[in-house]
Records
---
Amino acid sequence: MENSKKQWLGLLVIPLEMIIGNLVVPLFPIKEHPLLGVYLTTGVFVIGFLTMILLFKSFLAQQWRNYRQHLVRNLLISLVLVVGAVLLLQFSRKLIPADLLVQRATQNPTSALKATAWIGFIGAIPPFIAPFAEELTFRYLLLGKIPGKLLKVVMLFVQGILFGLIHINNFNGNVFATIPYMVIGIYFGLIYLAFKNIWGSLMVHWIFNSINSMLPALLLLILSLFGIHTS
């Protein structure tokens, strides 16, 4: 019963993040204070991250013990799979007509902020930690916990579609732009099934996000500390 409660609570984390981010955060004066919006959004993701870690810390620890038995091999495989994810994302985008990928203009309060290395670093935290909640939700709870091969095949596609849809805010509500992420969600699902270990897909997802967000932000932050500014 305790595990069942944890699983249901885990399934609520990402929906609550989206509800709070879309409905609660805008109640604050983020238009007048855009930096506040960055901090609040990051705070929501940090709370979600910590919640998932607390809920599934035993599971993560047990899976890590198995994963680290062949750590070097697994990390090398993960790097190759990250390259595959990058290529798959680019290929998927090319298959979608360009006019369908056009994003509607929105009034994003954070766009009023002057781009600084610190703001970029804070803004990179959510995608840096998001893989933990996302992999536990989509790959473990929505795929790994499903019994039966046929149902698993169905859920492989369902969780992939849902994974893509939670990124809809990244594209100002453009559903078509989330399709490549649906493909990536299915790709991560296949990785999870192949590894039979949450760290298999989590590591690929985490490296993938880090390359696209945290590493560039961290580099710019370090350069700014030395007085080097990029345009």
---
Amino acid sequence: MSIIELKNIEKRFGGVSALEDINITVNKNEWVSIMGPSGSGKTTLLNILSLMDNPTGGEYLFNGEDVSGFDEAKQLLFRREKIGLIFQQFHLIPYLTALENVMLAQYYHSATDEEDARAVLDKVGLSHRLTHRPSQLSGGEQQRLCIARSLINDPEVLLADEPTGNLDADNEKIIFELFAELKKEGKTLITITHNRELGALGDRVVLLHHGHQVSPHHHKHDNRHFQHGKI
């Protein structure tokens, strides 16, 4: 059953076309990797999926509802309740502890619950770092903190933008395993990445090239995933 349907999505900035004729369906509990070279439109697509930007044309259906025309208040509610966002840049509050960073995300959604916040930090392997501030955490720990923050409101879709972009190989592996575990638990994941290894972990790769969608290939670990453009 589909959770996201993008139908003929276009995005123009003045006379420049950033995305054209994008058609993607994401099913519940599916992991879709969106890949492509720099300038292919990945970030523009992420902004549309998270309702941080509106398409110029086409439809964005989420659970069958067209969300592309939502006003600002509805967009905010959508991001809080439906989407868990994980960025390459961590966007953590430097003067708050790990626990407080997670509880702040929770606060904006509903009431804070320290027990729930502790539980998601435990899930990402940070139960021993609850009182540490971001500057006291390694890059890998900060990214795991971001994942915990994205999970606190139990979103329907996790949307990750280059989640391993700033990490070394060891921390990369931890994030790979964490995403695989979340998928096993029933989460729907969309990862936007340059990383072939991370891309190949998905059920399916969608390739973008100069704002156009390249014919998808459904076979995991198939080098044809990467034949278009330098990824």
